[in-house]
Amino acid sequence: MDDFNQNIRIYGTNWCSDCTRSKAFLDNHEIEYSWFNIELDPELQKYVRKINNGKQIVPTIIFSDNSVLVEPSNQQLAAKLNIPINN
């Protein structure tokens, strides 16, 4: 993958099914990312709330171009990363 994909940061929780799905999608496409469990750090919780206008919504995914996807579908992730997917 290109450098664009190397700096993906996922902010989420271990109990979040959308977080698990998003990580699995990236894993299945061999895309590297950094995982941040916001339950372990109040500062990360604050950061996620700041990004999401006061709401603690996960997964919040930040890309190397500083764009953000919140609770993205696999189709949205694929579009962002230029990955062809079969419907």
Q: For this structure, what is the CATH homologous superfamily?
A: Glutaredoxin
Beta-strand portion reads 15-25%
Tally of separate domains: 1
Can you list the strand order of the major beta sheet? 2-1-3-4
* pLDDT < 50 runs, ≥5 residues: none
Q: Which class best fits the helix and strand makeup?
A: alpha+beta
| CATH-level-2 architecture | 3-Layer(aba) Sandwich
The mean pLDDT is 93
DSSP E strands, number: 4
The CATH topology = Glutaredoxin
Can you count the helices? Answer: 3
Indicate the overall shape.
Answer: globular
Run of helices and strands: EHEHEEH
Q: Measure the end-to-end span.
A: 22 Å
Largest sheet: 4 strands, mixed
The level-1 CATH class:
Alpha Beta
Indicate the percent of residues in helices. 25-40%
Task: Write down the Rg.
Answer: 12 Å
